[in-house]
């Protein structure tokens, strides 16, 4: 069976505490999200209160469409992500938007992301 749904009218919008949201489309077992991480967004401030974990425990796989984000893993290493970068991010990290432009990121690892624990 084939199916489609446009991300412009997502099945679900998950607002962050402030500074953005995640639009989510689910087709069968496949879930895709488009995150809009506004300037000032930081996982530890905007999603941690929702997730209830010390660091982000989601395995993200996706592509940055615009803007910039820095990801700091629990071991202290950092990764800068910008437009066109395709990433595979292990669980156990914090992240924040860099600069005054929203970071827009398409992510396949969002089935449980930014949902209350």
Automatic annotation (TrEMBL):
SUPFAM superfamilies, A to Z: RmlC-like cupins (SSF51182)
Protein name: Cupin domain protein
């Amino acid at each position: 069976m084939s199916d489609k749904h446009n991300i412009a009218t997502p099945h679900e919008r998950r607002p962050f505490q402030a500074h953005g949201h995640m639009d989510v489309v689910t087709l069968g077992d496949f879930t895709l999200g488009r995150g809009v991480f506004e300037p000032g967004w930081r996982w530890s401030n905007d999603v941690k209160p929702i997730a209830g974990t010390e660091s982000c425990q989601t395995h993200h796989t996706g592509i940055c469409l615009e803007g910039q984000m820095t990801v700091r893993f629990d071991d202290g290493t950092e990764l800068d992500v910008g437009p066109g970068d395709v990433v595979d991010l292990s669980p156990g990290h914090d992240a924040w938007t860099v600069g005054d432009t929203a970071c827009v990121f398409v992510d396949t690892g969002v089935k449980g992301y930014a949902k209350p624990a």
